[in-house]
Fold these 2 entries.
Entry 1:
Amino acid sequence: MPVELRLTAFFSAPVDSEALSKFWLKVDKRGPTQDHMDTRCWSWTGASNADGYGRFYYKGRDWLAHRLSFLLATGKEPKTVLHKCNNPACVRPSHLQGGDTKDNLLDLLIDRIYTDRDVA
Ligand SMILES: [Zn+2]
């Protein structure tokens, strides 16, 4: 199903506010502040997968918590949602950035160059 249709289906269905309040109960807004970020991470305290990404069951789907957070904040469900803070447990919408794989690789490259320069 195309993303637009899936989004329409998502938002036309009633919002499960009970599930959403459970979602936010699992978020610790006093997470760490990464060196390159101005604001604290919002740490996911619920279940997570082997890579450290939060997981949350919502509307019949098993979500990655940061992807659900991004969708709730922006209404968008891009192919990838990456962490500007490089903290997989973070679900703070302002720390997340949607993109495709190409953007992801570019960001990794930029990160790498940045880090190398820092070390030199
Ligand atoms: Zn963060």
Entry 2:
Amino acid sequence: MDAQTAKAIVEKWMIPTPAGAYMAGLENRPIIARAEGIEVIDTTGKRYLDFGSGQMAAALGHNHPRFVAAVEKSLKTISHSTKTFLNVDRLELHERLGGILTSPLQKSLFLVSGSDAIEAAVDLARKATGGVDVLALDMALHGSTSFVTRSLTFGWGRAKHRLAAPGTSAILTPYRYRSPFGDDPDFVEKCLSVSFEIADANFTSKPAAVIIEPVLSAGGVIVPPPGYMKALQKMAHDRGMLLIMDESQTGLGKTGKMWGHLHEDVVPDIMTVSKHFGAGLPVAAVTTSAAIADRAVANGYFATRSHACDPIVCAAGVASIDIIEQEKLVERAAAIDKRMRAQLEEMAKSIGAIGEIRGRGVLFGVELVEDRTTKVPANALARAVVAQCQDEGLLVQSRGSHGRTNVIRLVPPMVSTDDEIDRGMEILGKVLGAHGRDKKDKHAGLTRHSARPR
Ligand SMILES: Cc1ncc(COP(=O)(O)O)c(C=O)c1O
């Protein structure tokens, strides 16, 4: 299909995207025709290294042969099924997922999208605690369904929706690079005490939960400092609230451990899984302990969708766990972390626009600034870098929150070879070097934080 035909279809048939949204101007971008491994190929035959892992859900690469075989088998046996009977693939997926969950997480239910899973996790926390209010970080993204998940997605600015779900409010993101407390060694403590003083005043009833991503991805790849998660969980538990971890972007190996929460000594009370859980097909899970599940169910909890437990998506889920285990992708993500981090740190020596490098495993953010001392966000530079990388055959996105879109997010699939990583980093280095070398204070050095471990 040529660009002209595509534009005509967009203009006539598609509901447009608001200007300024990250999906705006789709008609001027390449049109994807197919993919091979970690590359996507557009309708002109141009190839791109997919350092966005699709919409973060192609972390196992595109069309992995084991995934294709599982889906093909399903298409020939049974792809959709009633929820009023169990099916073999669903049972297998419960057992396989249960086998890799951190104890005492053990129980799961399946849904379709990540947003579905968050809605269901919030409901689970409410039914288990008898509470209502839910807190999320002010730079978080937890989904786009009306009402609950977009109300908990503070990073996008929920004011545009005009109406927010009752019982949802924000707490401060522990964003050390732009800390309101300067370089205070008690940063974690201060973030939490201010957050909960306001939260306590905001609660409209008994609180139910606080939800957090182990790494705030869309908010700008923000890694909470050491000790934050543990202290957050304690403050939540002190109030009878549960800790929900949204592992949509961090689960199943992406951070170099099976789950993002394993980097901190914290087991969530409830955890959600989505994105590459289906290796390319939409399947999501809510997981919790038997005790919490029993309490919620006694209060009438259940959650499902017509396609939630279809054999085809459950078979894809089993294939995804197989691929991760058999190809040792958790270890591979940790190795990619080392390789990318070293290359990014090398770039930062001569490129003054790099303010901070953050991330874990295959989820990295490079925060671009006008000046390392003032840290003015370099939004225009980030836009130019994304566009030029695309021209050079590398797909990356820029992210951030509260008007900042200055973090280049890099998410190469976990199956990437060293050569593919190096090719992507070479393009990024060349593009950043061309645009960002002249930024001021390159000698000021990258920001290093001295978080007080607790
Ligand atoms: C952390 C996080 N949670 C939830 C969601 C929502 O997932 P979905 O778009 O599959 O509904 C996303 C989507 O990007 C996400 O990044």
